[in-house]
Structures are given as C-alpha cells and as structure tokens.
Amino acid sequence: MSLAEEHVKTAVRWSIGHALPRTVLRMQARRGDLQGRITVEASTGADLTGLFDEIRARGPLAATKVGHTTARHAVVREILTNDALVTTRPRYGAGILGKLAAWSARDITHPVQPPSLLVVEPPQHTRYRKLVTRVFTARAVEQLRERTQAIADELLDSLDPANPVDLIETYCGLLPVTVISEILGVPPEDRATVLALGGAAAPSLDLGLSWRVFRNVETTLSTFDAWLTRHLDALRANPGDNLLSRLITAREDGAGLTDRELKSTAGLVLAAGFETTVNLLGNGISLLTRNPAQLETLRSRPELWGNAVDEVLRVDPPVLMTGRMCSRDTTIAGIPVRPGQFVTAVLAAANRDPEVFADPHAFDVTRENARDHVSFGAGRHYCLGAQLARMEGEIGLRSIFERFPGLRPLPGAHRRPTRILRGFERLPTSLRS
Ligand code: HEM
C-alpha cells in the first residue's frame, strides 16, 4: 500500500470511529439528549452528580436518541448480565459508512477490537476467558503482593519531600505499569520502551479522540504489536516465572490461545492497567486529602484500607460507563429494547443509587456495603483485573499516606479530558509535614 493510500485510510478510520461520533454526540447534547450530554459533559471534568440524578429521575431506563441509558444500580446489573445485549463495536451497516469502514479497517492488536476479551461474545468469549482466568487466579495475584509493595517502596524512596511533586507522573502511573511489566515478563532493558508504549496507547480505550492523539495511538499500537511478536517468541523459547509465559502454555480441552489472542490479552492488560489503576490511585489520593477525617479513621483502623479502596472506587470510579448493543428483542426493567439500539450503563451513577447506598454522595471509608459498587462492571465481562487493581490500590494508597503523613495537595490539580476514563492528569502535591 502506498503512503498516500495509508494516510487516507487512517483519516477515514478516524473520521468514522472518532470525529463523526463526537460531532453527533455534541449535536445531540445541545438538543438535551441524555446520551450526548453525559459524553460531552464528562470531557469537561465537571461534577456529574446532578446529571446522574436527572437520568435516575427519568425512570429505570431513560430513552436516548440511539437507545437507552440508566443510572440505577439494579438496571446496570440487568443490562450487563443480559445475553441479548452484546459488546460489539458499532456496526455501520451495508451502506457507504459500512463500505468505508471495511475498506479502511486495519488488522492490528487493539484493546477494543476483536479478539480483545472486552469486545468478543460467547462462545468465543467463554473459551478465551476460561483460559485467561486459569492464569489470572487469586493465588497468582496474591503472589504479586510482595513485589507490588517492594515497587511502591522503591518509588516512594525516590521522591524528595523537599520539593513539590506531581504524583500522577512520579507514583500513580509508575506503580501499575511496573506491576504489569512483571505480569507480562518484560525484561528490565525493555521496561522503558513498554512504559512509553503503554502511556501513548492508553487513550485507545476512549472515544472521540482528536486526530493527533488518534495517529499517535495507532503508531504506538503498531510498535507495540511488533514488540509483542518478538517478546512472545522470546518467552516461548525461554519461559519465565510470569503470567504471560503461563498464558502461552494454558490449554482448555487441548486448545490454547492463538497468537492474536495472546497479543490482544497482553495489550488489554497493559492499557487497562495504565489507564484505570492510575486513576484509582490518583482519585484516591485526591479524595483522602480532601477528607482528612477519613484519613484519621484509617490511621487508627488500618484494617479498613481495603474497604477504603472500594469506597474510592464507588465515589470516583475510573470507568464512567460502558455500553452494549442490542442483538435481538429483549426487555430491561420490563421495557422493550429493540435490535440495533445502544444501551449505556452509567456505572458511576449506579454507585450513587440511594436505593443501595445510604447517603450516597458521602465518602465514608467505614461504609459496610462499599464493595457493592459496579465500578468493575458485572456479568460475563466483569473486570478480570479487579483483584489485582484492589491489591495495587490498597498497597499504593496505604504506603504513600504512611510514608508521607503530611501529604497535601497544591494548586494546579487537573483532570484528564478523556470521556469514559476518569481521573487526574496532574496532581501537584507537597510531601512535607
Ligand atoms: C481500578 C482499576 C480497574 C477498573 C475500574 C476496571 C474496570 C473494568 C470494567 C468496568 C470492565 C468491564 C467493561 C465492560 O463491561 O464493558 C473491565 C473489564 C476488563 N478489565 Fe478492568 N478495570 C481495572 C483494572 C484492570 C487491570 C489492572 C486489568 C489487568 C489485569 C484489567 C483487565 C480487564 C480485562 C481483561 C477486562 C475484560 C474482561 C472481559 O471482557 O471478559 N482491568 N474492567
């Protein structure tokens, strides 16, 4: 393919996948459509609780231009466990959009393109997920606990309390990616490369990307794909004590994962760890510094740190919402949903449902049912990294507040402009007492 043709295809992919949906959503938001409003208002970093209440007041399943949305906890769970509602990416039909999408499609490992676990459905999803969960066991995650603590300690050692620091850059981002490097068996000499690739590929989980970010993501994903091909070959020849090596040899009824599935899992694990756990840590630091009484409670009752992580996930979840496409006639909360309709489950809003959480807007680390949040989703696509994220969240937050008890935020904190993924881009902090 010539360079010019490649460039045109890239532009078409961006137009169909990002520019067009963004324009449509903005237009719909201006007309008051709830789906458009939530997507547009999310990118401003604004407090969305008023909008969540508005959606909830419109009933269990509120109508939108393209389907339905919900802010209710029970309905979110119903959507995510319904077999008729599937995770496939938007289809563009047999018309001109569909033809352009097919012509410009690119065969590259991408966290939200098949065969990524996130977007495949049974029976492929069942077989594939079984193999991955065989390796991502509770025991395997527990074995990473000590190493995660050591990584957190090393990162904290390198912080100089005499100077203000941006904790996103120096701590929240580095902790998860170093843990992921262990999981993927990345040799020390490749760590910096993987770190840079992960950072640049992270926005791939979002929608409505700008042309510049989209191009950067695509180039990075190609480089990551090439690196993974070499890395998988190296692990095959010389397996190590890491989860990716175990995944290469995992078998179910005699069959294992294909190379594409292996690469896709590695890519998803990298992007998910980069873009979600960093937000859990950043959102947690922000919430705890703004609520000193809660920090005091944790100081006197450190056994509550695990619960505090769930309360952070409930109040300020890293993933705002997820969507499903209806594949056949079904009902949700007794309301008919038709094939082709798009249904969004607003996870962050369900976490504030007063039917489930008393005084839902209060941040309370002693809350007994904090763990009932839906920040990791539900049903067959329930987050595979939930246990790992909880463990990293607990170690990451507890360690920094124990090491720097006088930690306080400085002006200049800034939230990311991403729509689906919610967290801080910068968190300037003083570590001095
Ligand atoms: C605080 C951190 C995290 C949050 C809030 C989070 C959230 C989520 C959510 C909401 C889903 C379901 C999406 C949907 O139903 O459409 C999901 C799926 C997934 N997550 Fe996470 N995640 C986190 C960390 C991680 C980590 C560290 C990993 C890496 C091991 C990971 C790997 C995955 C995978 C592989 C899936 C797809 C599972 C499937 O489709 O079967 N996540 N995550």
TrEMBL record:
Keyword Transmembrane listed: no
Keyword entries, A-Z: Heme, Iron, Metal-binding, Monooxygenase, Oxidoreductase
Keyword Chaperone applies: no
GO biological process, one term: cholesterol catabolic process
PROSITE patterns recorded: CYTOCHROME_P450
Stored Pfam families: p450
MF (Gene Ontology): cholest-4-en-3-one 26-monooxygenase activity; heme binding; iron ion binding; steroid hydroxylase activity
Residues annotated as transmembrane: none
Top-level taxon in the UniProt lineage: Bacteria
PANTHER family, A to Z: BIOTIN BIOSYNTHESIS CYTOCHROME P450, P450, PUTATIVE (EUROFUNG)-RELATED
Family affiliation: Belongs to the cytochrome P450 family.
Protein name (database record): Cytochrome P450
Organism from which the protein derives: Lentzea aerocolonigenes (Lechevalieria aerocolonigenes)
